[in-house]
């Protein structure tokens, strides 16, 4: 049975529908969607040459050049890749940038080969516009709660215990702060925005969504301006944890876990070297804010801790610089930030209390008649 082309963009994202992106690799790298696979009709060099021909001689000359470049074994190789993709994803759809010549050419070639290949009408551009419009609408009109608390109080741990929560740092693949870089780097800005919009779309807007309080940037991923502005005035849920509890969290999240990540991809000696470079580099990036003397003291403590850890003596020595950095650097920054937040405090408590309270709220919300919320 032949399936129709679709413009039901919401259904594509809600159902995690597989998408075949036939744009050039350079376009895909700038931004795509979580369930899209890039198998281009024309590669980057071919796209460049066709674009030049289009500017010089017009559309038909560009089409003729495209047919000349993508023929014979090149065409057969791309057809085989598409064919394999469709066999693995029979419910998929394909698209190009605007739903025009490239996607329709791909569709025609596949149908000539006996493969039903429906299109996403108006292509990537329409999908992207849909997500941006939904993101702004949800942020500006949907209910949001903001999770606040000092560095190390375990906000991400709370988010991961709840369904109606968005882990912005997880979407940005960055733990936040100067120490937050993770192996593998961060997604492109467009990919980050797309993933955020899809997460909000799936959660819906009938009940509040919990997000962590963040600054404008998470690493190099920027929060959408509408979200960054609204975080300042939304109701807050504040986590309060003692200093030593926060030291435990930072030790696990910024020392032990990152080292394990480095060990996953490198031999032990190389992993320890890369981790030391990562940690010292993070401290060096905030040298001016710390001041020269304090930075030097913390750096010496950190080097001793790294040497101890390399010898296999555990990571407890790291607690010294973590404790000093929290109390003397991050806590004053948090106090300053909090003075610029206008939202009321919905409630506050330690991490376990916040998790229990929010989980109970989620159970109550699930039991409510559809369309009703507090």
TrEMBL record:
The active site is at 96 (s-selanylcysteine intermediate). The keyword Transferase applies. GO terms for molecular function: transferase activity, transferring alkyl or aryl (other than methyl) groups; tRNA 2-selenouridine synthase activity. It catalyses: 5-methylaminomethyl-2-thiouridine(34) in tRNA + selenophosphate + (2E)-geranyl diphosphate + H2O + H(+) = 5-methylaminomethyl-2-selenouridine(34) in tRNA + (2E)-thiogeraniol + phosphate + diphosphate; 5-methylaminomethyl-S-(2E)-geranyl-thiouridine(34) in tRNA + selenophosphate + H(+) = 5-methylaminomethyl-2-(Se-phospho)selenouridine(34) in tRNA + (2E)-thiogeraniol; 5-methylaminomethyl-2-thiouridine(34) in tRNA + (2E)-geranyl diphosphate = 5-methylaminomethyl-S-(2E)-geranyl-thiouridine(34) in tRNA + diphosphate; 5-methylaminomethyl-2-(Se-phospho)selenouridine(34) in tRNA + H2O = 5-methylaminomethyl-2-selenouridine(34) in tRNA + phosphate. It is an enzyme of class 2 (transferase). Keywords: Selenium, Transferase. Pfam families: AAA_SelU (PF26341). The keyword Ribonucleoprotein does not apply. Its EC number is 2.9.1.3. Residues 13-136 form the Rhodanese domain. SMART domains: RHOD. GO terms for biological process: tRNA wobble uridine modification. Involved in the post-transcriptional modification of the uridine at the wobble position (U34) of tRNA(Lys), tRNA(Glu) and tRNA(Gln). Catalyzes the conversion of 2-thiouridine (S2U-RNA) to 2-selenouridine (Se2U-RNA). Acts in a two-step process involving geranylation of 2-thiouridine (S2U) to S-geranyl-2-thiouridine (geS2U) and subsequent selenation of the latter derivative to 2-selenouridine (Se2U) in the tRNA chain. PANTHER family: TRNA 2-SELENOURIDINE SYNTHASE. Belongs to the SelU family. Monomer. This is tRNA 2-selenouridine synthase. The gene is mnmH.
């Amino acid at each position: 049975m032949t399936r129709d082309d679709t413009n039901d963009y919401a259904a594509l994202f809600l159902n995690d529908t597989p998408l075949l992106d036939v744009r050039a690799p350079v376009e895909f790298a700038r931004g795509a969607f979580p369930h899209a696979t890039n198998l281009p009709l024309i590669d980057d060099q071919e796209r460049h040459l066709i674009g030049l021909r289009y500017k010089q001689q017009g559309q038909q000359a560009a089409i003729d050049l495209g047919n000349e470049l993508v023929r014979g074994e090149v065409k057969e190789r791309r057809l085989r890749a598409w064919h394999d993709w469709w066999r693995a994803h029979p419910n998929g759809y394909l698209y190009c940038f605007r739903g025009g010549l490239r996607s329709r050419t791909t569709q025609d070639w596949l149908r000539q080969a006996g493969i039903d290949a429906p299109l996403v009408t108006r292509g990537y551009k329409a999908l992207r516009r849909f997500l941006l419009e939904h993101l702004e609408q949800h942020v500006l009109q949907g209910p949001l709660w903001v999770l606040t608390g000092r560095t190390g109080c375990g906000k991400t741990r709370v988010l991961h215990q709840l369904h109606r929560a968005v882990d912005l740092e997880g979407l940005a693949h960055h733990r936040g702060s100067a120490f937050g870089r993770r192996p593998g780097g961060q997604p492109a800005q467009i990919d980050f925005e797309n993933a955020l919009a899809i997460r909000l779309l799936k959660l819906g807007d009938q009940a509040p969504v919990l997000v962590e309080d963040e600054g404008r940037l998470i690493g190099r991923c920027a929060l959408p301006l509408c979200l960054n502005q609204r975080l300042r005035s939304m109701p807050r849920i504040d986590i309060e944890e003692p200093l030593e509890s926060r030291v435990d969290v930072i030790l696990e999240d910024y020392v032990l876990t990152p080292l394990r990540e480095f060990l996953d991809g490198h031999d032990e000696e190389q992993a320890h070297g890369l981790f030391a470079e990562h940690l010292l580099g993070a401290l060096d990036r905030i040298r001016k804010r710390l001041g020269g003397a304090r930075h030097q003291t913390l750096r010496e403590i950190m080097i001793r801790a790294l040497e101890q850890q390399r010898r296999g003596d555990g990571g407890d020595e790291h607690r010294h610089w973590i404790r000093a950095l929290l109390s003397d650097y991050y806590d004053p920054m948090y106090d300053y930030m909090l003075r610029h937040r206008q939202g009321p405090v919905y409630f506050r408590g330690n991490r376990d209390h916040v998790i229990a309270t929010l989980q109970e709220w989620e159970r109550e919300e699930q039991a409510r008649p559809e369309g009703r919320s507090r």
